[in-house]
Amino acid sequence: MSAPRSRPARNWGVYGLLLLLAAYAAGPMLVLLLSAVKTPAEISANPLSWPAELQWDNFATAWVDASMGTGLLNSAVIVLSTAGGVCVIACCGAYALVRLDVPKPGVVMLYLLVVSTLPIQLSLVPLLSWWTTLGLYDTQFGLIVIYWALYSPFATLLLRSYLIAIPPEYEAAARIDGAGELRVFTRIVLPLLWPGVLTAALVSGLQAYNEFIIAVTFIQDSEALPASIALFSFQQGYATNYALVSAAGSIMVLPMLLLFLALQRRFVSGYTSAGMAN
C-alpha cells in the first residue's frame, strides 16, 4: 500500500526540482528583459523592481545607436561561415581518425583534447602579430579563420563518436563497387553522419555568435563588427547605460533563442547520441 503513495510524492519532488532549475535558467533572461524597459535610474535603484512606466523606446534607441542591423548581418555572415568551415574540417578529421590508417591516432586525439581546453588568451599576442603580418587583421575572414581553428577540435571529437557507431560494412560495399574514398564519404558516410554535423554546426555557430574577446581584438572597422561588440556603444566615459545595454542584449539573444527552440530536439538528440556512441 505504501508504493502507490510514494510514487506521486517522488514525482512531485522531481517536478519541484525541475521547476527550480527552470527558474534558475530563466531568471537572468527575465531580469534582462525587465531592465530593457526601465530607465537607468530605476535600474540603479532596484534592478529587480517593476518599472513605473515601460520604456519601449529603449529598443529603438539601442537598435539605432548600436547599429544592430549591421551588427546582426555581420554576425550572420560570421556564424554561417564559421559553422560551415568547422563542419568541413571536423568531418574530414573525424573520418581520417576513424576510417583511415592515421599514424598514432591516440596522440592526435590527445592533441585535439588539449587544444580544445586551452584558453585563447594564451595565443592572443602572437596571433595578433602574425595576423597583422599576413594582412588578416581587421577582416572578417581573419576572424573566421581563428574560429575555425578554435572550434574544430571539439567538433572533430564529437563527429568521431558518431563515426564509431556507423558500421564500416556500408563503406566496404561501396568500395567493392569501385567508389573512391571521397565518393564513399559524400554518398555513404555523410548522410548517416548528418545529425552529428548539424549538432557541430549549432555548437560552433552559437560559440561564434556569443564570442567577444577575439572579435573585439581582431576587428576594429565599425562596419565589420558583429552584434556582440555592439554593447560597447553604450559606454559613456566611466558610466554605462544599462537600460540600452539590456535592450541591445535582448535583441541579440532573440535570433539564437528562436533558432535553438526550432532545433531543440535535434540539438539534444545529437548530444545524447554522441554520448551513447562513446
Q: What do these coordinates show?
A:
By secondary structure, the chain is mainly α. The chain has 2 domains: 2-36; 73-224 and 269-277, MetI-like fold (Orthogonal Bundle). It is 76% helix and 1% strand. It contains 12 helices and 2 strands. It has helices at 2-36, 40-45, 57-65, 68-99, 105-117, 124-134, 140-165, 169-176, 181-210, 213-218, 242-262, 264-277; strands at 235-236, 239-240. It has a two-stranded antiparallel ribbon with strand order 1-2. Strand 1 (235-236) and strand 2 (239-240) form a beta hairpin. Helix 3 (57-65) crosses helix 11. Mean pLDDT is 84; it is low at 274-278. It is found in: Cell membrane. The chain crosses the membrane at residues 12-37, 76-98, 110-131, 143-163, 184-203, 242-263.
How many domains in all? 2
Helix content: over 70%
Euclidean distance between termini CA atoms: 42 Å
What would you say the CATH architecture of the largest domain is? Orthogonal Bundle
Assembly category = single chain
Q: Count helical runs.
A: 12
Shape: globular
CATH superfamily of the largest domain: MetI-like
Q: In CATH terms, what is the fold-level topology of the largest domain?
A: MetI-like fold
Q: What is the CA-atom radius of gyration, in angstroms?
A: 23 Å
Task: Please count the beta strands (DSSP E, at least 2 residues each).
Answer: 2
SSE order, one letter for each helix or strand: HHHHHHHHHHEEHH
> What is the residue-mean pLDDT, rounded to a whole number?
84
Largest sheet: 2 strands, antiparallel
Which CATH first-tier class of the largest domain would you pick? Mainly Alpha
